[in-house]
Amino acid sequence: xxxxxxxxxxxxxxxxxxxxxxxxxxxxxxxxxxxxxxxxxxxxxxxxxxxxxxxxxxxxxxxxxxxxxxxxxxxxxxxxxxxxxxxxxxxxxxxxxxxxxxxxxxxxxxxxxxxxxxxxxxxxxxxxxxxxxxxxxxxxxxxxxxxxxxxxxxxxxxxxxxxxxxxxxxxxxxxxxxxxxxxxxxxxxxxxxxxxxxxxxxxxxxxxxxxxxxxxxxxxxxxxxxxxxxxxxxxxxxxxxxxxxxxxxxxxxxxxxxxxxxxxxxxxxxxxxxxxxxxxxxxxxxxxxxxx
Length: 292
What we know:
Helix content: 25-40%
Oligomer: single chain
Strand order of the largest sheet: 10-9-8-13-11-12
Number of strands: 13
Structural class: alpha/beta
Radius of gyration: 19 Å
Mean pLDDT: 91
Number of helices: 10
Order of helices and strands: EHEEEHEHEHEHHEHEEHEHEHE
Largest sheet: 6 strands, mixed
CATH class of the largest domain: Alpha Beta
CATH architecture of the largest domain: 2-Layer Sandwich
């Protein structure tokens, strides 16, 4: 058992097998669908949700876990003998998870003062957030200290980049998560928008007339970031659009040295805001040492 426990939530979009193999602990987000209160990936599956979403007349509401949810997990870990925890969350400018985890930390330290907890705001989302959790877990499994794990995560915050496209921004707009990309809403007819996240907020990255052109722009951005001979770790993420994201994968891996890749579908709590058909990437450049 590693000295440092790694905690996150379902928004990180990490594949199930990696959650288990890397000993990552997580808390589900909430989805309010009419009178139903669903727990992300607990009593609502990706497949079921994406079959239903295109026909929704009213977009479900999502909510981050509350302080009590995180506190319960911290308490459980402490009862198992854990003394150090790194808790990693999506952008505090787009969700209250970071704040809820911070409150939970303060509360539990009043009862268990010897517990050490670091709460980290990734200023990102999806598998950009997920990569930080994965690398934190790997660092913890090596036996690194709390400071070592924390430093590893913080070193990735300025490096990770998300780029995604979809046929519409209406889901982001309806869910109030559109950020500075709102300027693109008026010119969306027959346009494929590219969006990303900068300083914790959704931002526009460009427009294309076809998905193919949008994917080429993603490839060029990866090459620009990595350099001509650079290497990257990359996650291909989608919402009910596996065929589309595999096209992106083929285009990128034909031109870029990818040392690790993950293909994963967005969780329902994220899919509410991105909408079905979304396809994109979350990546970061790696050094020669990191690629070994």
